[in-house]
């Protein structure tokens, strides 16, 4: 069987120990017969670029990396708000549009609607999505269509991320 490549999405790239987390996830991928690709693996020289140009270069490099991967595992734990990281959401959509399996995990087991104050509407009168899902229906739908989503309420620590990430790898391996 050909070794599958996995794009490792999530706000992990913003963590103070991002390189350590990415390396640990790649080691776990290898243990389960996969090749993991972390966005920080891209070796690009940004030193001569403006911040805008650097952002576009990173975008292009990540698109290239996703194009060469067979599937995606996204850390969907809420980041900087009640929902998952918006860049990771884009990456999940990009992979889904290519009909590649989309897997995700979250350490926050609460329903999306429970993370937002209000009942049927928020403080500004906008309706709150209430489909008994842990995140936006489009993100959960992407994992449901060709992959899976593991949810396990626990503290957001490096060890817990790796523990749940490994469970995702086990599920992918079972579904091969």
Automatic annotation (TrEMBL):
It holds the Pfam family Nuc_deoxyrib_tr. InterPro entries: 2'-dNMP_N-hydrolase, Nucleoside_deoxyribTrfase. PANTHER family: 2'-DEOXYNUCLEOSIDE 5'-PHOSPHATE N-HYDROLASE 1. This is Nucleoside 2-deoxyribosyltransferase.
